[in-house]
Records
---
Amino acid sequence: MVTGEGVTVSAGKRKRPRKIAGLLRSQMRNIAPFLTLICLSGFFAAASPSFATLDNVGNILTQVSVTGIIAVGLTFVILCAEIDLSIAGIANVTGIAVAYFTQQESYVNIANIPMAGWAAIALALALCALLGVVNALGLTVIGIPSFIMTLAMMQIAAGISALLVRGQIAYKVPDLVATLGSSSIGGIPWIVIVAALMLLGGHLVLTYTRFGRYVYMVGGNREAAEFSGLNVNLILGSVMVIAAVCAGIGGMLGVAHFGSAQQNEFDTYLLDSIAAVVVGGTSLFGGRGGIGNTIVGLFVLGVLNNGLDHVNIDSFLKILIRGLILLAALIINVYAQRLRAKAVD
Amino acid sequence: MPQGRSPILELQEITKAFGGVEALRGVDFVLSAGEIHGLVGENGAGKSTLMKIIAGVHTEFSGRLLLDGRETRFRSARDAHAAGIAMVHQELSVAPDLSIAENVFLGSQPTNRFGLVQWRRMAREAGEQLARFGIDVDPLSRLGDLPIGLQQLIEIARVLFSGARIIILDEPTSALSPPEVERLFSTLRRLRDEGTGIIFISHFIEDILRVSDTVTVFRNGRKVAEAQAADTSKAALIEAMIGKGREALEESYTEDIPLPPLSDRPVVLKASGLSLARSLKDVSFEVRAGEVLGIYGFMGCGQLELARILFGKLRPDHGGLVVAGGQATFASTAQARRAGIAFVSESRRDMLFHQEPVYKNVSVSILDRISRLLLKPSRERLIARRQVEQLQIRPAAVELNLGMLSGGNQQKVALAKWLSYPPRLLVLCEPTRGMDVGAKSDVINIIRDLRARGLAIIVLSTEPETVLSLADRILVLRRGAVVREFSDEAISKDRLLEAA
């Protein structure tokens, strides 16, 4: 009944004048966050002389690094149209674990198990990977929606953290972690380099590997991926583990960066990393976006947080402003999805 | 029109077009109070379109609609509902997580004067209504826990007891067992005797003849016959439905065509005793290399479930598969694909990535053959270009987003994704549904070509022409069971429909 041929022909006739508009529409998802970033930067540069300095750019980079490392894995998850609410909890417990397996100063009152630095790092990584595997099994084998599964995991991770530190604070981490988290090379903080490398790695995997393609396909149309004979559960499980390991690395370096490991240290990083991914334009419905978007999103958040400190605003008002700007970005995200859907039709 | 009854609904000269294609052309239709009016016709003949006009779903059409002799125009389904018209749609539309009572009273729960739902009254009345229907269930249990057939009956019950004066039932019996159908019919007869006008659409012509007073036949958007059920026969109705090739643009298969003798080539897939809940009962068959096995049946006969079992999407309750000599139970579609089985779903939406370019759609199922870790986009494009050329996909641009292609070309892409590394067995659901004549014959030629290359192919369709134009052997499925196999004999559309 449907005369698809006729529809295509008539669309073809009208196409030329609409071509640029159509391109803009379909790229709205990428353009809008970038414009947001430029506007915000422009505004803060005009409002405060101390904002647009090389030093401050370095500050912003350092400030977004931990979020950036965590957001790498989260980008994979959101591209698959799933969510991971346990990343901050896993970051926290991994950071605490690496300290727990390191010899602490005598005044730290934690019944810890000191061991060699490499072993502590390996155990901490194994822990976050294991928690990621539990997320993966819950999501794929049992069939718990990721929102609920990772909500439970958030609590579990917080519980393990609490049991390990029992309200105390640990300070020492293995030398490698301490170096990567808190020292610099040639004036560039190691943590910025690690974040950049991980973002680059994530981008390469998503863009140039078969696995990356599968992530986009599963996110774009899960039913079609399954009917194309892809192992959808394996892919979904993998992204949950990737997210957990990225969160774990972010947690270890974060602990070194902050100089302490304690309960609830990473709580704000959950919303920050979700916001970075989504504000950057990666679709919450899956299949669209990528690490490039996440980087733009990170800078939007970084510039916003940093810039608000440079201008003279009531510090309590800042929280509200942050919320409003995030809301605006989310509205754009949803509209971009609709415009794109229209452009495709 | 039956004598002595007054028409409650009259449609005159109804014409309705979708994007230039006329789905209905000048149709007149009369429904009387106290009448069960059966409607038959092939898929796309215009039955459902007419019903949606009556139910206020389609509001744009030309012609007149008279309710109780007064011309009316519904602006929405809600309007029609308020005028006493209720419809049971083909697809189940229930709230599985609500209780049975809530489903029976969906949207009209009894409330007290504080606006609170009167649960006890609702449960009692729902129980009474369902009991009249011969359904004995706890009205407070969750609807989704019941078998599909009972859910469908409860949905029908909701509409039947809603107090509507005109009730439309679109293909209500497809998921029902024979005793359930019997219960439905006796309820319909009672409502008719109470003065309700009922329109009953079904592919099961025996059902139509058994329960209807009047039968109307549609073909190609026209009303081609109307008769008293008592004065007509299944053969006459089938002939009216499919015509004698006068209006058909393509081969209509009204004459006998021969099916070839059984091939002696190796068996590629053997299914034995496949059963699945209420969908399939003990289905067994073999398919050989270089052979097209057609599986024909009406909507809801279990074809879709069968195809999904073959591709590892559903697991059968009983029975198993043997693929190329090895026992196989597929835990996932990925396993089925690795065993050399390819699948094209009846819905293109479920097969394709509309926001991705054509070449990514073509390569998705074979990526692991052409790349281990890193993608090879130039190789992908090359393969895609070759497929686009072979299957004559238009426009021949592999970078174009799939969503820009027409339906027929999208269907070709859905086939193309399996063909660069030919599978052992190709399972095709409704390969030509919703396509225009040209695209249809292209797809049929592609499938014939694949058969010549030695693929085993299973074509599942509710369209007799599709099965007849492709199949070397035909299985007829009816309510989940194989009721007839045509092999090495003459067959025509009449005989196929007769068997179903």
---
Amino acid sequence: MANPSDRLYTKSHEWVQLAGGEATVGITQYAQEQLGDVVFVELPAAGKQVAAGGVLGNIESVKAVSEVFAPVGGEVVAANGELEAHPELVNQDPYGKGWLVRVKATGAPAGLMDAAAYEKFLAEESH
Amino acid sequence: MSDKTSLRQREGLIFERSSPGRVGYQLPPLEVPPADPAKTIPAGLLRGEIADLPEVSEVDVVRHFTRLSKWNYSVDEGLYPLGSCTMKYNPRINEEVARLAGLAQLHPLQPEDQVQGALALMWELEQALIAVTGMARVTLQPAAGAHGELTGMLMIRKALADRGEKRRVVLIPDSAHGTNPASAVFAGFEVVEIASTAEGTLDLAAVGKRLEGGDVAALMVTVPNTLGVFEPEIVKAARMLHERGAFLYMDGANLNAFVGIAQPGKMGVDALHINLHKTFSTPHGGGGPGAGPVAVSDSLVPYLCVPTVEKAGSRFTLSYDRPKSIGKVRGFYGNFGMLVRALAYIRSLGRDGLKLMAEGAVLNANYIRKGLEADYHLQYTGPSLHEVVFDDSLQAASGVKNVDIAKRLLDYGFHPPTMSFPLIVHGALMIEPTESDGIDELDAFIAAMKAIAREVRESPDLVKGAPYGTPVRRLDEVRAARQPVLRWQARKA
């Protein structure tokens, strides 16, 4: 699966898509592959303030529990409630129905990569 | 498999064996009039209905659990190469000693002059652990490794508070045991993860950079690390930390790799826990409980748990005179029965025997590494000590993952290695044979792993469908985690 070019990526394998002042955040195809079958997703409640680079939540797979970091800071507007009953959406559709949270971004994201740069980063990582 | 229908294979739940009215013992008729509970017991303490307990006879119970026990796999049955866990054989002499009436039947509230032998034993174990680690003193109280981590980190926190410092950050490498960050957070610290170097070892430059903030309380590091590789810069790391007023906590889970060869005290370690159920052969898990004594340097001695055992002449006492102590972390004096077993092990091996034990563990791990390195990929190729971490990348092209290899190993009669840990190795298969097994068992294990590698090349679906010869076939771990059924409930009639 290609990484969509309509969003930005972090070195910790989150993606963020900006529309207006709102940022939708999820984890990448690579991240979900590395995690394996996701069994539980812990997300912040709406209204919570998160700092860019701070811990946004946790994703638990059969292998491990991993932290998800916020690519942008701001106030959480919504968390994907679907994931409570269907955590497998993170595996099946990481760039669509498997989104994690929407954040009202307080600043422009810094230090993120576009899809091409992220793919280059992945290629280097695997060496 | 031919015996799939044997009674042993079909063993259900004890609840399913229940038959109304069946009892273990027929009691004689009462010689006194029965009392009505509603009249004798306060209403608030009366339960409405009797719990749904199985109604079974004594022989039903014994046979059920005996059959279940045959599904088990244990260190008494064969090689148990669960990496990081150090599943070594538990010598029977330990059990013999722990069952001596003078030890087994002690009461923890007996007066000191009646338990001089028990106190002497604790004192002697502390001295032995001091000799092994080169540290100043040891508390025997913590009940497990992670409990030891928490105890050590609480002492560090108290020492910092004593200096009037509010350092919040604990540095932990990304190869650490998951308990390290959990213990640090539980002790009130914030965790900052340090990425490992390309060789899988501690990144000293990254540690140095983070220390400049002045807010680092400690570094928690496992030596040898979770790849089974010795941290070559540990002495330098200790010096850097101490220059910045920070502490070095060593996770001693892998101490079995260098007992009698190197001492954490000489490396500059300030606190480390010692898993008696790993290095010193006391039982694990269900056979436990565990014990995780914490050894400390001079700087942390004032903060040790109370009571400590002190020796004055030929007399031993329990001392509570430690005004800066973090207090107690466990009822009474820790899991005393485990202390007895650990000392029995130490005394029966002796100084030279303990060193041989560590050398044997390292030799066995390297024998397996050599035996399997043509068939399984090694991401980090630094010299192995007591364990070796392969991964599944050579098998990935066939669509076979570490979990498939582990399940197939069950068909060959071995307990699988640790999987998917440490996290810095994708698809990890972490093998720790310990010193317990001889070359025949190691060769059988290597042959099984090689046979599986061949099966992956020739018929990968066979491996992906494993296991075939176990009481139950492959379980749906994902569904079990997503839709856990945690409680048995009677089917509605």
